[in-house]
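User: Please go through the entry that follows and flag anything odd:
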Amino acid sequence: MEESAKIINMIKPGQVIQKKIINDQEYIFRYPQGDDVGLLCVYINELSQERTFIRFQGEEITLEAEKKYVTNNLSKIAAGEKVVVLAFAAGVLVGNAEVTMKEKTEKHRGLVGITIKKDYRNKGLGTELLQLAMAQAQQELPNLEILELRVYANNDRAIHLYKKLGFKEFGRLPRGIKRDDGYADRIYMFKNVK
């Protein structure tokens, strides 16, 4: 029990984890906090309208729904079940990476997710953000042994990044993604961290 109390005290909402310059742009990486709801709502809605490689494909997320999502995330963070790292450039939210622990017989596995705002892709931010989130997860989530993720098979840039960081494909669901423009395979990848 002492171990859990120690972990809960290590992650502070809004705490800056790192400041770094990547390709002449300064970024601040920090944990989320309750008053990020508005920023996160705008961020996910921009990504949704883009209809890119995420679940949301044009839907509008309400502020109320985002508030519930953020409150749930903050509870999981406090319980040592999740790590979320936000990336900011000039005060604007431009990236989000997270590792969420699974439950029961899968409680040693963490599901990885990452999104980057359009104008900040292919500039090194994704690599830095994902590495930082994985490092924080290994430090803050004591049960973590395996990282896993899911990716669209036609998202070549993301697949390249994941392979570069040591993830390996372990499965593929043909036509696992259905969007307005057709189907894509869903690729499953993992990385052992313990």
Notes: Residues 2-149 form a domain with the Aminopeptidase fold (CATH 3.40.630.30). The beta strands are 16-22, 25-30, 82-89, 92-101, 109-116, 146-152, 168-179, 182-192. The longest strand covers residues 168-179.
